[in-house]
Model the fold of this input.
Amino acid sequence: MYALVEFQGKQYKAEEGKCLKVDLIAKDPGEKIDIDSVLLVSGDHISVGEPYVSGAKVSAVVQEHGKDKKIIVFKYKPKKDYRRKRGHRQWFSIIKIENIALA
Done:
């Protein structure tokens, strides 16, 4: 059984027992979160929402927080001696899907 959920403006495929890497959440590790914006639930039959499935809910637990690998942002303009190099590491949270409930 899996569900497609919308969380913090992005869509994820949530399966029971699996972990998702999402943008940073302002919750401590071990805290529970409920996601009500479920777009699709697939089990014995498929339920598609318009835009959300009514009564469906995904429960998850925050596992940990961290930073991604560094990406390099390099800008330049040819023949103009303009070069800018910056690095960026994005914060993330890992959540574990506990339960997918359909009302």
